[in-house]
Fold:
Amino acid sequence: MPDDALNDDERAARHAAQRQAWNDTHPTYYAEYRERNRERIRKTNRERERRRAQRERDEQERSRKGIERAKEWARRHPEERQQARERYKQKHPEAYKQAQRDYYYRNRDAIAERRRAREAANPEKADEAHRRAVARARAAGRVAEWSPSASQQESYRQRENEARRLHRRRARAGLPDRRFHRVLAAERRHNAAAADAFFARKRSREEMARIREQDVPTPPELVHAWQHRCETRRVAREILAMADAYFIDHEVELRARVAEVSRARFRAGLLPLDVYTEPRRRALEVASTGYLRRSAASPTSSLAAFRWLTSDLAKRDNDIVL
Structure:
């Protein structure tokens, strides 16, 4: 049947079948063609990509110039700009609202930052504007009556009960009431900005001298106690590090020795040793030899040493035979 007697779909199906039959007959044609014309294909692709990139740059340049012309015209003709906006808004209300929404979502962070800057610069004005907006919404009937759900009421009741219990506990302990109060976000940002400006300001010599005069030196006994605690903790860390290394190297020997001593004590009618903590205690004793503050890493004076000694208790088994 000639192609003129076929419709478009039948003609396309016939051509596709012919192409598929030819491809099946010559399976390596395209690979061989690409191999023979590799350089020409690459050159053609590069030229095509260059033209596409140039078209994109030209389009971006035309768009930028158009935006600049529109901004310049709007700056010179503010009344005509406002009238054109109102005409577009009345003619295309949905498109106008969608454009506003799109602009907001594209520039959400910048808009929020500008609003926070305005509120921080003048929190009283921001609060007054917020109150006026709420009053207008209520007058227009846009504020619906709201009531909490049952789960929300239960949550509020639990918070109030916890607050009352905390108040009673503080009163029994002789502590004053909490003096925290709610502060609006704009006022918090204003206070934070004022604090940053206060502490970042460079002080004069007179101010630094006055501040130093207000400082009271730390009592020597407190300084000595702090130094003693620091030195004790440093020694404890060193001893525990050495004990851990010694225990890793001699774990088998330590456990065998403790098991032997425990059997001998058991046969003599004495209580056996703790086969979980005793090997680590002996490693700790070896590591602390030679230190002037050996008691710094004792189980009764150091929580870190106690935890290290009892770290094997969580891994204990029930098949230990003495």
Notes: Residues 107-136+183-215 form one domain. The chain is about 75% helix and 0% strand. The CA atoms of residues 138 and 144 lie 8 Å apart. Confidence is low (pLDDT under 50) at residues 318-322.
